[in-house]
Amino acid sequence: MSTRTAFDSSTAGVMADIAFIECELLGAARARARAKAPAATRGKARPKSGQSSPATAMTGRRREVVVGGRRVKTIDVHAHCVIPEAYALLGLKVQDHRGPGINEVGPRRIREMDAQGIDMEALSINPAWYRAERDLATQVVKIQNERLAEFCGKYPDRFVAFASVALQFPDLAVQQLEEGVKKLGLRGAAVGASVAGDEFSDPKFHPFWAKAEQLGVLIFIHPQSTPDLATRLKGNGWLANTIGNPLDTTIALSHLIFEGTLDRFPGLKICSAHGGGYLPSYAARSDNSLRVAPDMDTGIKLKKKPTEYLKTMYYDTLVFTSEALRHLAAEVGVSQLVVGTDHPIPWQDKSIDHILKAPGFSDADRRAMLGETAAKLLKIKR
Ligand SMILES: [Zn+2]
Protein backbone atom coordinates (compact mmCIF):
# COMPACT_ATOMS: atom_id res chain seq x y z
CA MET A 1 0.00 0.00 0.00
CA SER A 2 1.49 3.26 -1.03
CA THR A 3 0.42 4.96 2.18
CA ARG A 4 2.77 2.78 4.11
CA THR A 5 5.77 3.75 2.07
CA ALA A 6 4.79 7.40 2.28
CA PHE A 7 5.31 7.44 6.01
CA ASP A 8 8.31 7.20 8.13
CA SER A 9 8.62 5.02 11.18
CA SER A 10 6.37 3.51 13.77
CA THR A 11 8.42 2.03 16.55
CA ALA A 12 8.31 2.52 20.28
CA GLY A 13 11.76 4.04 19.90
CA VAL A 14 10.26 6.85 17.90
CA MET A 15 7.81 7.60 20.70
CA ALA A 16 10.72 7.75 23.09
CA ASP A 17 12.47 10.14 20.70
CA ILE A 18 9.49 12.47 20.71
CA ALA A 19 9.36 12.50 24.50
CA PHE A 20 13.08 13.24 24.57
CA ILE A 21 12.76 16.00 22.02
CA GLU A 22 9.99 17.62 23.97
CA CYS A 23 11.99 17.59 27.19
CA GLU A 24 15.03 18.92 25.44
CA LEU A 25 13.12 21.74 23.81
CA LEU A 26 11.30 22.59 26.97
CA GLY A 27 14.55 22.67 28.89
CA ALA A 28 16.26 24.90 26.35
CA ALA A 29 13.29 27.22 26.12
CA ARG A 30 12.99 27.52 29.87
CA ALA A 31 16.68 28.37 30.10
CA ARG A 32 16.22 31.08 27.49
CA ALA A 33 13.15 32.38 29.25
CA ARG A 34 15.06 32.59 32.54
CA ALA A 35 17.98 34.37 30.89
CA LYS A 36 15.62 36.95 29.42
CA ALA A 37 13.40 37.31 32.44
CA PRO A 38 14.13 41.01 33.08
CA ALA A 39 12.92 41.89 29.59
CA ALA A 40 9.88 39.67 29.70
CA THR A 41 6.48 41.21 29.25
CA ARG A 42 3.38 39.26 30.28
CA GLY A 43 5.46 36.09 30.32
CA LYS A 44 6.79 36.58 26.79
CA ALA A 45 10.50 37.13 26.42
CA ARG A 46 11.64 39.90 24.09
CA PRO A 47 14.83 39.81 22.07
CA LYS A 48 17.58 42.25 22.94
CA SER A 49 17.70 43.75 19.49
CA GLY A 50 14.90 44.01 17.00
CA GLN A 51 16.71 42.99 13.84
CA SER A 52 19.17 40.29 14.67
CA SER A 53 18.13 38.08 17.53
CA PRO A 54 15.10 35.93 16.95
CA ALA A 55 14.12 34.44 20.26
CA THR A 56 11.71 32.00 21.74
CA ALA A 57 10.17 31.80 25.15
CA MET A 58 7.85 29.58 27.07
CA THR A 59 4.59 30.33 28.66
CA GLY A 60 3.91 27.28 30.71
CA ARG A 61 4.58 24.33 28.45
CA ARG A 62 4.01 26.16 25.21
CA ARG A 63 6.96 27.45 23.29
CA GLU A 64 6.20 30.87 21.88
CA VAL A 65 8.19 32.17 18.95
CA VAL A 66 9.23 35.81 18.83
CA VAL A 67 11.18 37.33 15.94
CA GLY A 68 12.38 40.92 15.97
CA GLY A 69 10.31 41.66 19.04
CA ARG A 70 7.11 40.32 17.54
CA ARG A 71 5.30 37.17 18.51
CA VAL A 72 4.79 35.03 15.44
CA LYS A 73 1.85 32.68 15.08
CA THR A 74 3.67 29.68 13.65
CA ILE A 75 1.73 27.57 11.17
CA ASP A 76 2.68 24.08 10.02
CA VAL A 77 1.20 23.24 6.61
CA HIS A 78 2.44 19.66 6.60
CA ALA A 79 0.85 17.70 9.44
CA HIS A 80 -0.67 14.27 9.02
CA CYS A 81 -3.59 12.53 10.63
CA VAL A 82 -5.80 9.58 9.84
CA ILE A 83 -9.41 8.91 10.78
CA PRO A 84 -9.62 5.30 11.96
CA GLU A 85 -13.22 4.66 10.90
CA ALA A 86 -12.55 5.91 7.37
CA TYR A 87 -9.35 3.94 7.27
CA ALA A 88 -11.20 0.78 8.28
CA LEU A 89 -13.63 1.24 5.40
CA LEU A 90 -10.64 1.06 3.07
CA GLY A 91 -9.48 -2.16 4.73
CA LEU A 92 -6.48 -0.43 6.25
CA LYS A 93 -5.20 -0.48 9.80
CA VAL A 94 -4.07 2.55 11.71
CA GLN A 95 -1.20 0.57 13.19
CA ASP A 96 0.16 0.09 9.66
CA HIS A 97 0.63 3.84 9.43
CA ARG A 98 3.86 5.41 10.41
CA GLY A 99 3.79 8.29 12.84
CA PRO A 100 3.08 7.77 16.54
CA GLY A 101 -0.23 9.32 17.48
CA ILE A 102 -1.24 9.86 13.85
CA ASN A 103 -4.84 8.93 14.68
CA GLU A 104 -5.07 11.49 17.48
CA VAL A 105 -5.98 15.15 17.16
CA GLY A 106 -6.10 16.30 20.74
CA PRO A 107 -3.98 16.73 23.86
CA ARG A 108 -1.08 14.56 22.81
CA ARG A 109 -0.68 16.26 19.45
CA ILE A 110 -1.05 19.70 20.99
CA ARG A 111 1.57 18.88 23.61
CA GLU A 112 4.01 17.93 20.85
CA MET A 113 3.16 21.08 18.90
CA ASP A 114 3.72 23.18 22.03
CA ALA A 115 7.14 21.67 22.56
CA GLN A 116 8.21 22.44 18.99
CA GLY A 117 6.70 25.91 19.00
CA ILE A 118 3.97 25.18 16.47
CA ASP A 119 0.87 27.26 17.13
CA MET A 120 -1.30 25.81 14.40
CA GLU A 121 -1.32 22.78 12.18
CA ALA A 122 -3.07 22.53 8.83
CA LEU A 123 -4.13 18.89 9.04
CA SER A 124 -4.16 16.65 5.99
CA ILE A 125 -4.84 13.01 5.25
CA ASN A 126 -2.76 11.28 2.62
CA PRO A 127 -5.06 9.88 -0.07
CA ALA A 128 -5.37 6.11 0.26
CA TRP A 129 -8.69 6.06 -1.63
CA TYR A 130 -7.72 6.98 -5.20
CA ARG A 131 -8.45 3.44 -6.39
CA ALA A 132 -11.69 3.04 -4.43
CA GLU A 133 -15.10 2.83 -6.11
CA ARG A 134 -17.24 5.92 -6.16
CA ASP A 135 -19.58 5.01 -3.29
CA LEU A 136 -16.76 4.00 -1.00
CA ALA A 137 -14.66 7.03 -1.88
CA THR A 138 -17.69 9.24 -1.24
CA GLN A 139 -18.21 7.72 2.19
CA VAL A 140 -14.55 7.87 3.18
CA VAL A 141 -14.20 11.50 2.17
CA LYS A 142 -17.44 12.48 3.89
CA ILE A 143 -16.36 10.92 7.18
CA GLN A 144 -12.90 12.46 6.96
CA ASN A 145 -14.01 15.96 6.10
CA GLU A 146 -16.63 15.98 8.82
CA ARG A 147 -14.15 14.76 11.41
CA LEU A 148 -11.53 17.26 10.30
CA ALA A 149 -14.11 20.02 10.66
CA GLU A 150 -14.93 18.76 14.16
CA PHE A 151 -11.28 18.93 15.19
CA CYS A 152 -11.01 22.46 13.86
CA GLY A 153 -14.21 23.44 15.65
CA LYS A 154 -13.01 21.97 18.92
CA TYR A 155 -9.57 23.59 18.76
CA PRO A 156 -10.04 26.65 16.55
CA ASP A 157 -6.78 28.23 17.69
CA ARG A 158 -4.71 25.15 16.96
CA PHE A 159 -6.01 23.48 13.80
CA VAL A 160 -7.26 24.16 10.34
CA ALA A 161 -7.54 21.39 7.78
CA PHE A 162 -7.32 20.51 4.12
CA ALA A 163 -10.30 18.65 2.68
CA SER A 164 -9.92 15.15 1.36
CA VAL A 165 -11.17 14.75 -2.20
CA ALA A 166 -11.82 11.72 -4.42
CA LEU A 167 -9.84 13.01 -7.38
CA GLN A 168 -10.34 9.81 -9.38
CA PHE A 169 -13.86 11.18 -9.91
CA PRO A 170 -13.11 14.80 -10.78
CA ASP A 171 -16.78 15.87 -10.72
CA LEU A 172 -17.12 14.42 -7.22
CA ALA A 173 -13.87 16.06 -6.11
CA VAL A 174 -15.19 19.43 -7.27
CA GLN A 175 -18.29 18.98 -5.08
CA GLN A 176 -16.25 17.74 -2.13
CA LEU A 177 -13.90 20.69 -2.33
CA GLU A 178 -16.71 23.19 -2.56
CA GLU A 179 -18.64 21.64 0.31
CA GLY A 180 -15.53 21.21 2.41
CA VAL A 181 -14.63 24.87 2.04
CA LYS A 182 -18.07 26.48 2.11
CA LYS A 183 -19.96 24.25 4.53
CA LEU A 184 -17.23 22.79 6.72
CA GLY A 185 -14.76 25.67 6.80
CA LEU A 186 -11.84 23.64 5.46
CA ARG A 187 -9.06 25.72 3.92
CA GLY A 188 -8.24 23.87 0.72
CA ALA A 189 -7.53 20.29 -0.29
CA ALA A 190 -4.74 17.80 0.23
CA VAL A 191 -3.90 15.65 -2.77
CA GLY A 192 -1.28 13.10 -3.78
CA ALA A 193 1.11 13.78 -6.66
CA SER A 194 -0.86 11.74 -9.21
CA VAL A 195 -4.18 9.92 -9.19
CA ALA A 196 -4.08 6.15 -9.62
CA GLY A 197 -1.50 6.52 -12.37
CA ASP A 198 -2.98 9.64 -14.01
CA GLU A 199 -1.03 12.89 -13.97
CA PHE A 200 -2.56 16.06 -12.56
CA SER A 201 -2.04 17.73 -15.92
CA ASP A 202 -4.60 15.37 -17.50
CA PRO A 203 -7.44 17.55 -18.85
CA LYS A 204 -9.97 15.50 -16.90
CA PHE A 205 -8.70 17.24 -13.75
CA HIS A 206 -9.14 20.73 -15.17
CA PRO A 207 -12.54 21.22 -13.47
CA PHE A 208 -10.94 20.55 -10.11
CA TRP A 209 -8.13 23.05 -10.63
CA ALA A 210 -10.70 25.54 -11.91
CA LYS A 211 -12.75 25.14 -8.74
CA ALA A 212 -9.71 25.52 -6.50
CA GLU A 213 -8.72 28.63 -8.41
CA GLN A 214 -12.22 30.04 -8.17
CA LEU A 215 -12.43 29.41 -4.44
CA GLY A 216 -8.95 30.85 -3.92
CA VAL A 217 -7.91 27.95 -1.71
CA LEU A 218 -4.59 26.21 -1.28
CA ILE A 219 -3.94 22.75 -2.72
CA PHE A 220 -1.37 20.81 -0.72
CA ILE A 221 0.51 18.25 -2.80
CA HIS A 222 1.94 15.36 -0.82
CA PRO A 223 3.74 12.56 -2.70
CA GLN A 224 2.93 8.89 -2.41
CA SER A 225 6.17 7.43 -3.73
CA THR A 226 6.65 6.23 -7.30
CA PRO A 227 5.19 2.69 -7.42
CA ASP A 228 6.26 2.30 -11.05
CA LEU A 229 9.86 2.24 -9.83
CA ALA A 230 9.27 -0.24 -7.01
CA THR A 231 11.68 -2.79 -8.43
CA ARG A 232 14.52 -0.29 -8.61
CA LEU A 233 13.78 1.13 -5.19
CA LYS A 234 14.08 -2.18 -3.36
CA GLY A 235 16.79 -2.81 -0.80
CA ASN A 236 18.37 -0.82 1.97
CA GLY A 237 17.71 2.87 2.50
CA TRP A 238 13.92 2.97 2.27
CA LEU A 239 14.40 4.37 -1.22
CA ALA A 240 10.69 4.22 -2.03
CA ASN A 241 10.37 7.14 0.33
CA THR A 242 13.89 8.60 0.43
CA ILE A 243 13.99 9.02 -3.35
CA GLY A 244 10.49 7.99 -4.41
CA ASN A 245 8.64 10.74 -2.60
CA PRO A 246 10.65 13.77 -3.73
CA LEU A 247 10.74 12.28 -7.23
CA ASP A 248 6.94 11.89 -7.21
CA THR A 249 6.54 15.58 -6.39
CA THR A 250 9.13 16.53 -9.01
CA ILE A 251 7.21 14.64 -11.70
CA ALA A 252 3.87 16.16 -10.67
CA LEU A 253 5.14 19.75 -10.69
CA SER A 254 7.01 19.24 -13.96
CA HIS A 255 3.84 18.07 -15.70
CA LEU A 256 1.83 20.96 -14.29
CA ILE A 257 4.43 23.30 -15.74
CA PHE A 258 5.25 21.67 -19.08
CA GLU A 259 1.70 20.64 -20.00
CA GLY A 260 0.51 24.22 -19.55
CA THR A 261 -1.78 23.53 -16.58
CA LEU A 262 -0.35 26.44 -14.61
CA ASP A 263 -0.85 28.74 -17.61
CA ARG A 264 -4.46 27.63 -17.82
CA PHE A 265 -5.07 28.28 -14.10
CA PRO A 266 -2.76 31.16 -13.20
CA GLY A 267 -4.53 31.84 -9.92
CA LEU A 268 -4.09 28.30 -8.65
CA LYS A 269 -2.31 28.15 -5.30
CA ILE A 270 -0.22 25.02 -4.92
CA CYS A 271 1.97 24.11 -1.98
CA SER A 272 4.26 21.10 -2.22
CA ALA A 273 5.63 19.05 0.63
CA HIS A 274 9.33 18.42 1.21
CA GLY A 275 10.50 21.63 -0.39
CA GLY A 276 9.04 20.66 -3.76
CA GLY A 277 11.06 17.46 -3.98
CA TYR A 278 14.05 17.61 -6.30
CA LEU A 279 12.71 20.19 -8.71
CA PRO A 280 14.05 23.37 -7.06
CA SER A 281 17.45 21.70 -6.62
CA TYR A 282 17.94 21.38 -10.36
CA ALA A 283 15.49 23.90 -11.68
CA ALA A 284 17.47 25.39 -14.56
CA ARG A 285 17.65 22.07 -16.36
CA SER A 286 13.96 22.54 -17.13
CA ASP A 287 14.74 25.79 -18.95
CA ASN A 288 17.23 24.11 -21.24
CA SER A 289 15.82 20.72 -22.16
CA LEU A 290 13.68 21.75 -25.12
CA ARG A 291 16.49 23.93 -26.46
CA VAL A 292 18.71 20.88 -26.48
CA ALA A 293 16.00 18.62 -27.90
CA PRO A 294 13.45 20.71 -29.84
CA ASP A 295 12.09 17.51 -31.37
CA MET A 296 10.71 16.67 -27.89
CA ASP A 297 8.52 19.78 -27.89
CA THR A 298 4.92 18.65 -28.28
CA GLY A 299 3.83 22.12 -29.34
CA ILE A 300 2.57 23.46 -26.04
CA LYS A 301 3.53 27.11 -25.91
CA LEU A 302 4.31 28.10 -22.34
CA LYS A 303 3.87 31.71 -21.35
CA LYS A 304 6.97 31.71 -19.17
CA LYS A 305 10.25 29.89 -18.70
CA PRO A 306 9.71 26.70 -16.67
CA THR A 307 11.67 28.08 -13.72
CA GLU A 308 9.39 31.13 -13.57
CA TYR A 309 6.48 28.88 -12.63
CA LEU A 310 8.41 27.63 -9.64
CA LYS A 311 8.25 31.16 -8.26
CA THR A 312 4.45 31.12 -8.39
CA MET A 313 4.03 28.04 -6.20
CA TYR A 314 4.59 27.40 -2.49
CA TYR A 315 6.79 24.88 -0.70
CA ASP A 316 7.32 23.67 2.80
CA THR A 317 10.68 24.10 4.49
CA LEU A 318 11.36 20.43 5.21
CA VAL A 319 14.79 20.44 3.61
CA PHE A 320 16.90 19.81 6.74
CA THR A 321 19.86 22.17 6.37
CA SER A 322 20.40 25.92 6.30
CA GLU A 323 22.12 25.62 2.96
CA ALA A 324 19.18 23.73 1.45
CA LEU A 325 16.80 26.36 2.79
CA ARG A 326 18.98 29.15 1.36
CA HIS A 327 19.04 27.49 -2.04
CA LEU A 328 15.30 26.83 -2.03
CA ALA A 329 14.64 30.48 -1.19
CA ALA A 330 17.06 31.57 -3.92
CA GLU A 331 15.25 29.48 -6.53
CA VAL A 332 11.61 30.11 -5.63
CA GLY A 333 11.64 33.22 -3.42
CA VAL A 334 11.39 33.40 0.35
CA SER A 335 7.80 34.60 -0.04
CA GLN A 336 6.88 31.11 -1.28
CA LEU A 337 8.07 29.18 1.78
CA VAL A 338 6.01 27.91 4.71
CA VAL A 339 6.82 25.66 7.65
CA GLY A 340 6.24 21.94 7.18
CA THR A 341 7.04 19.49 9.95
CA ASP A 342 5.58 16.18 8.73
CA HIS A 343 4.26 15.76 12.27
CA PRO A 344 3.79 13.21 13.78
CA ILE A 345 6.32 11.51 11.56
CA PRO A 346 9.70 12.30 13.05
CA TRP A 347 11.68 13.53 10.09
CA GLN A 348 12.78 16.53 12.08
CA ASP A 349 12.21 17.97 15.52
CA LYS A 350 13.48 21.52 15.10
CA SER A 351 11.43 22.91 12.26
CA ILE A 352 11.20 26.30 13.94
CA ASP A 353 14.90 26.51 14.80
CA HIS A 354 15.68 25.49 11.23
CA ILE A 355 14.18 28.82 10.16
CA LEU A 356 15.30 30.90 13.14
CA LYS A 357 18.93 29.84 12.80
CA ALA A 358 19.47 29.76 9.04
CA PRO A 359 21.80 32.66 8.16
CA GLY A 360 20.98 35.29 5.59
CA PHE A 361 17.31 35.88 6.24
CA SER A 362 15.81 39.08 7.63
CA ASP A 363 13.39 39.08 10.54
CA ALA A 364 10.61 39.80 8.06
CA ASP A 365 11.67 36.78 5.99
CA ARG A 366 11.60 34.56 9.05
CA ARG A 367 8.18 35.79 10.17
CA ALA A 368 6.86 35.18 6.67
CA MET A 369 8.16 31.61 6.58
CA LEU A 370 7.14 30.83 10.14
CA GLY A 371 3.52 31.81 9.75
CA GLU A 372 2.57 35.02 7.97
CA THR A 373 2.54 33.56 4.48
CA ALA A 374 0.63 30.46 5.57
CA ALA A 375 -1.86 32.64 7.47
CA LYS A 376 -2.70 34.46 4.24
CA LEU A 377 -2.95 31.28 2.19
CA LEU A 378 -5.09 29.49 4.76
CA LYS A 379 -7.11 32.55 5.78
CA ILE A 380 -6.01 32.36 9.39
CA LYS A 381 -6.33 35.48 11.53
CA ARG A 382 -3.01 36.63 12.93
ZN1 LIG B 1 4.35 14.02 5.01
Tags for this model:
single chain, 382 residues, alpha/beta, TIM Barrel, five-stranded parallel sheet, three-stranded antiparallel sheet, 15 helices, 11 strands, disordered N terminus, binds zinc ion
Going across the biggest sheet, name each strand in turn.
Answer: 7-8-9-10-11
Quick one: how many beta strands?
A: 11
* Structural class assignment: alpha/beta
The amount of helix comes to: 40-55%
Task: Give a verbal description of the structure.
The chain is α/β, with parallel strands linked by helices. It has a single domain, classed as Metal-dependent hydrolases (TIM Barrel, Alpha-Beta Barrel), CATH 3.20.20. It has 15 helices and 11 strands. It has a 5-stranded parallel beta sheet with strand order 7-8-9-10-11. A 3-stranded antiparallel beta sheet has the order 1-2-3. The longest helix has 24 residues. The two termini are 39 Å apart. The N terminus is likely disordered. Bound molecules: zinc ion (ZN). The site of zinc ion (ZN) has 5 residues, from strand 4.
Architecture blueprint of SSEs:
Blueprint (H helix, E strand, L loop, with lengths): L1 H5 L5 H24 L19 E5 L2 E6 L2 E3 L2 E6 L3 H6 L17 H10 L3 E5 L9 H21 L4 E3 L8 H13 L5 E4 L14 H10 L2 E4 L17 H4 L1 H15 L2 H4 L4 E4 L11 H9 L13 H5 L3 E3 L5 H11 L4 E2 L12 H7 L5 H16 L4
Helix pairs in contact: 6-7
